[in-house]
Design goal:
Blueprint lengths: L1 E4 L3 E7 L1 E2 L2 E2 L4 E7 L5 E5 L6 E4 L2 E7 L4 E10 L4 E2 L3 E6 L7
């Protein structure tokens, strides 16, 4: 679990391996659930997720609300599985401009 402030931009990153080798996947999806309960989905095939090196995927996201954020990457291809649910806690800002 990580803690950030409202307005922080974070890189959500995952690695997919077959055995010990990082391996590119044919399909990668990222699900993000915001503190409000709204879910967003991003896909590698639509260039919403980037592959920074073979098997390593990322999406930058601005944390614009305080509370508990959840995210999970899912792959189908030579590796079928997920990163599991990752929790990010966002602290409220004492500044009114954020």
């Amino acid at each position: 679990m990580s803690s950030f402030d409202v307005g922080d931009e974070v890189a959500l990153i995952c690695e997919f391996r077959v055995g010990v080798a990082l391996t590119s996947q044919s399909e990668v999806t990222l699900q993000v659930i915001r503190p409000s309960g709204v879910e967003s989905r991003y896909t590698f095939g639509l260039n919403q997720i980037t592959e920074s090196s073979p098997g390593v995927y990322r999406r930058n996201l601005v944390l614009d609300r305080p509370g508990r954020w959840l995210y999970r990457f899912t792959a189908t291809g030579s590796y079928r599985g997920t990163t599991g649910n990752v929790v990010v806690n966002v602290d409220p800002s004492p500044f009114s401009s954020v």
